[in-house]
Each structure stands twice: as C-alpha cells, then as structure tokens.
C-alpha cells in the first residue's frame, strides 16, 4: 500500500512540475488574482488522477489483494475467538447443570 501511495504521489508531483512550468511559461492560464498557487495544485490534481488510474492499475490491484487477504485473516481470527468463547460458555453451562443435578 505504501508503494502505491508513493507512486501516486510521484505522479502528482510530476504533474505539479509540468503544470507549474506551463503556467509560468504562459502556455496555461495563470488563474484569477492571487489564486495562482491553488490553480496550479488543482490543475495538477485533475491531471494526475486519470493518469494514476490508468498507469497504476496493476499496483492498485496488488494492494487491493493484500488488503482483502488481511481482512479475511482478521475475520478468521474473530470467528475463531467467537467459536472459542462459545465452546467455553457451553462447557461452563453444562458443568453448572451437571452440578445442579447432583445436588
């Protein structure tokens, strides 16, 4: 997951540099008034999102598979704990009933 995040950040930074160069060379509009910095960041975000979606598809799928495996492992552990609690509870109840019948 960290690898995907770093790759996505790298694509954003690359787009930010390209947009900044285009804006300051006059090939892209400068924004309105003092909003130039915000304009550059937003334009870089808009450009980097579809690029990341296409370029990082395989890495995103790998990260997704790791997350699914981790969630499945946690679910299995929770189910095992729940089963263990049910078994212990059933044993305690049957022991209590057995003691109640002998009294």
UniProtKB/TrEMBL annotation:
InterPro entries: DUF4229 (IPR025323)
Record flagged with keyword Transmembrane: yes
Pfam families: DUF4229
Segments of this protein annotated with the region Disordered: 79-103
Membrane-crossing segments per the record: 7-25, 37-56
Superkingdom as given in the UniProt entry: Bacteria
Metal-binding recorded as keyword: no
Skewed-composition ranges (Polar residues): 94-103
Entry keywords, A to Z: Membrane, Transmembrane, Transmembrane helix
Signal peptide positions (record): none
Name this protein carries in UniProt: Membrane protein
Organism (species): Streptomyces toyocaensis
């Amino acid at each position: 997951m960290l690898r995907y995040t770093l790759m996505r950040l790298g694509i954003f930074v690359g787009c930010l540099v390209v947009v900044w160069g285009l804006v300051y060379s006059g090939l892209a509009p400068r924004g309105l008034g003092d909003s130039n910095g915000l304009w550059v960041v937003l334009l870089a975000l808009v450009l980097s999102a579809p690029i990341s979606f296409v370029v990082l598809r395989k890495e995103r799928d790998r990260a997704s598979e790791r997350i699914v495996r981790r969630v499945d492992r946690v679910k299995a552990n929770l189910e095992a704990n729940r089963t263990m609690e049910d078994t212990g509870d059933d044993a305690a109840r049957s022991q209590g009933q057995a003691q109640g019948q002998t009294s």
